[in-house]
């Protein structure tokens, strides 16, 4: 999160999806609209970043893993809308969750999980000196049920005479009671740091609460002078939606600490004071008349030239095939925030191609249906079920998926009028990180494999 005058900007982990590092804008911390992607070059999985502004220039510090090598990169721009620079390797290994800070000495620093720190050059584009341990994170009692200690996500802000270090411990998934928000403070960026006597500031105490594993916060001042923290958590019963963004009010105490005032987030909260409502989200239906890559559509785990697979043509999106299975086809996907929804699309399937729709978590877990010019294919549990193949001459087909609180039904129509319900209804509540790993979410996707092409037309999405 970044407060920039009256504007607020946000970005979050894009993991294996590209274009990635999508930037969002708000004036009230409630209504958010996309600006677009800052990162178009595939760099492997992209983890928790930091978005900052320093001396008129914007920076995003990015942990990524090109070629499987975990490293920290930075990109920069003079305008939040870009253009953004190419990634610069800061040559810091074994670290995640960078948090930028400027000390009372005027020097710039990056903090990492641990909590460790390294100095930056004045331009913020290179490091100086060695990585050092600067704080022993607060530790919860041993009898608490959490995933693991895992101190991470350090974010530094300055208020009054104090630097505040906000961090997460407890693990981001596992038991519902994992993850939390902790605080420490110091009069100097160099410490010593004292722990907040009220730690943890935020913690899911029971699986009965509506939000699980709440943690990894940014604390910032709202538009009316009130204070808020923004962090992520899993929705009870809907881990398939991935880690979602949560907003909670903060209140300052007379002794200079802050406390969370949202409880379990089970009840409505007053909005931030004096915020200016603006655009919120965007329509997910798409007639493919404009390029919505990065705003909506992204390729999963793409190769360096993945963008060449797609072209817009006469209110349609043409995708070239890739791979030999749905798992290695780098499907076109987008984030779904609704518990229940219906989505439909028309596909014109070319020769030597197999194409269809899917609910895609990763190459290890997905479900869906697809067609070639001669057969229908069925996928569930991350594999094709050959015993369900059906001979069926198909060139154009309209496909529809209904996800009703994790109960999935597929339909297809070859004439646009008569619908056929696929015989296998599926239950996907286990398609999430605690079962499969990778910290992803279950997305709607369109895939095309083989050497042919598919033409996408008239995508309609309706949340329920």
Work out the strand percent. over 45%
Number of helices: 1
Overall mean pLDDT: 97
Helix content: under 10%
Oligomerization status of the protein chains? single chain
Helix/sheet category: mainly beta
Please tally the β strands and state the result: 38
Radius of gyration: 23 Å
Briefly, what CATH class of the largest domain? Mainly Beta
Number of domains: 2
Terminal CA distance? 29 Å
- Low-confidence regions: none
- Give the second-level CATH assignment, the architecture of the largest domain: 5 Propeller
Q: The CATH topology of the largest domain is what? A: Tachylectin-2, Chain A
Q: How is the main sheet built?
A: 9 strands, antiparallel
According to CATH, the homologous superfamily of the largest domain is: Glycosyl hydrolase domain, family 43
Q: How would you describe the shape? A: globular
């Amino acid at each position: 999160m970044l407060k920039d005058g009256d504007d607020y900007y946000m970005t979050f982990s894009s993991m294996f999806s590209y274009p990635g590092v999508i930037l969002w804008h708000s004036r009230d911390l409630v209504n958010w609209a996309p600006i677009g992607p800052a990162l178009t070059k595939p760099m492997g999985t992209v983890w928790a970043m930091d978005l900052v502004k320093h001396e008129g220039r914007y920076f995003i510090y990015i942990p990524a893993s090109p070629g499987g090598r975990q490293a920290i990169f930075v990109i920069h721009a003079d305008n939040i809308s870009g253009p953004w620079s190419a990634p610069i390797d800061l040559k810091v290994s074994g670290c995640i969750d960078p948090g930028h800070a400027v000390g009372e000495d005027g020097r710039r620093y990056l903090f990492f999980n641990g909590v460790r720190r390294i100095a930056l050059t004045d331009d913020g584009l290179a490091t100086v000196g060695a990585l050092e341990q600067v704080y022993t994170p607060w530790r919860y009692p041993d009898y608490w049920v959490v995933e693991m200690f895992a101190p991470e996500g350090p974010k530094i802000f300055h208020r009054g005479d104090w630097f505040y270090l906000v961090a997460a411990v407890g693990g981001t998934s596992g038991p519902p009671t994992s993850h939390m928000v902790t605080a420490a403070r110091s009069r100097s960026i160099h410490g010593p740091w004292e722990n907040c006597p009220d730690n943890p500031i935020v913690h899911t105490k029971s699986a009965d609460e509506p939000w699980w594993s709440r943690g990894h916060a940014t604390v910032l001042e709202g538009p009316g002078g009130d204070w808020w923290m923004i962090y992520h958590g899993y929705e009870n019963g809907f881990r398939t939606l991935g880690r979602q963004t949560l907003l909670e009010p903060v209140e300052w105490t007379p002794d200079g600490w802050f406390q969370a005032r949202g409880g379990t987030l089970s009840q409505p909260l007053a909005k931030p004071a004096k915020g200016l409502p603006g655009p919120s989200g965007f329509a997910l239906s798409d007639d493919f008349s404009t390029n919505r890559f990065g705003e909506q559509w992204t390729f999963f785990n793409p190769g360096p030239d993945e963008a060449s697979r797609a072209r817009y043509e006469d209110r349609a999106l043409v995708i070239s095939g890739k791979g030999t299975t749905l798992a290695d086809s780098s499907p076109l996907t987008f984030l779904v925030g609704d518990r229940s929804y219906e989505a439909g699309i028309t596909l014109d399937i070319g020769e030597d191609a197999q194409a269809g729709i899917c609910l895609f978590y990763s190459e290890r877990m997905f479900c869906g249906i697809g067609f070639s010019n001669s057969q229908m294919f069925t996928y569930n549990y991350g594999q094709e079920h050959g015993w369900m193949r059906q001979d069926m001459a198909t060139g154009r087909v309209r496909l529809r998926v209904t996800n009703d609180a994790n109960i999935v039904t597929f339909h297809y129509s070859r004439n646009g009028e008569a619908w056929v319900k696929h015989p296998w209804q599926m239950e996907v509540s286990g398609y999430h990180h605690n079962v499969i790993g990778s910290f992803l979410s279950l997305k709607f996707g369109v895939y095309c494999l083989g050497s042919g092409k598919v033409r996408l037309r008239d995508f309609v999405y309706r949340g329920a």
